Amino acid sequence: SNLSNFLGAKAGDGRMTSDDSLSSHHSIIIPPSDPYPDYKHVITSSQMLTSLDAAMAAFHLHVESRIASLCGQGFYTIGPCGEEMLASIGHALDPDVDAMALHYRHLSVSILRQLRLGRNLEDVVLDRAR
Q1: CA 81/CA 62 separation, integer angstroms
Q2: How far apart (Å, rounded) are the C-alpha atoms in residues 127 and 15?
Q3: For 50-73, how does the pLDDT look when each residue is reduced to its tens digit (9 = 90+)?
Q4: Nearest C-alpha neighbor of 65 from the set 5, 2, 1, 125
């Protein structure tokens, strides 16, 4: 079947052809169309990269906290569970005046807000780790 061929295939071994439904489904990538010119709520490439930096930093801090806890050097941790991708919410908030408390799920948003205020990612992460 197409699924077993897909799962068993290795890159370039020729077992999947362009006629296979799974292959053809994945080989055609249509980029999204541009939003309407007057649509103001679009995340830019720069904002996307900043969001990913904040998300990865939050994930890293969660993992390090879990390791420290297992080594007897830390405290209760909730661990990462997807809140990292909430970082983009930080772009919708004014980092100077908008208060936020997302109850446990705030780390990536907090990191992104600090980055928007011009702080260095390394300093933000080290401040959290201390």
Answers
A1: 9
A2: 52
A3: 999 999 999 888 888 888 888 888
A4: 125
